[in-house]
Write a structure and sequence with these properties.
mainly alpha, 61% helix, 6% strand
Length: 167
């Protein structure tokens, strides 16, 4: 309960900060963009480019919310799997993890700069920091698939039992 209350109070502080920045009430999407930008020190984690604070506006196309580990492969839509980045970085990364992208399209020095930026984010810890720098994403992807297959089997069994009962 205490954790929820603290998080709610923090979100309201951030909502007020974002509203003051834009000079109007902010949407939930804009609050998310602001929280991510704030967490990252108003820099794109992938390129190191500055993020204009006014760029948190939902209709600003210079920046996009990216799933660090692609949603299509990992199914994680949580805050811990999101980052705010430049549109170009998001398009270049496509459906890859940061490591897969840097390994395929960049030189090793770029990966070292990127991981240095990640390590410099003092407010990012635990699973989110792991998501930024994970190299062996296949293990996590396999766990996601297995968990969803189990969930699907369970739901199908319940549906089949209910259909038997009805018919």
């Amino acid at each position: 309960t205490k954790g929820l209350e603290e998080r709610t109070a923090e979100k309201e502080r951030r909502r007020k900060e974002a509203a003051d920045l834009l000079g109007r009430a902010v949407t939930d999407d804009e609050l998310l963009r602001y929280e991510l930008a704030h967490e990252q020190g108003f820099k794109c984690i992938y390129s190191g480019d500055a993020i204009d604070p006014a760029g948190i506006s939902a209709n600003d196309t210079r920046y996009q919310v990216d799933h660090i580990l692609p949603w299509s492969r990992f199914g994680d839509d949580s805050f811990l799997n999101k980052t705010l980045c430049t549109t170009k970085a998001n398009q270049d990364k496509r459906g890859r993890t940061p490591f897969e992208w840097f390994s395929a399209d960049k030189v090793e020095a770029d990966w070292l700069e990127y991981t240095s930026r990640v390590e410099g984010l003092s407010s990012v810890k635990g699973r989110k920091k792991r998501n930024y720098s994970i190299k062996d994403a296949g293990t996590i992807e396999d766990k996601f698939k297995a968990r969803n297959l189990t969930d699907t089997q369970w739901a199908t069994r319940l549906l089949a039992d209910e259909l038997k009962r009805i018919f």
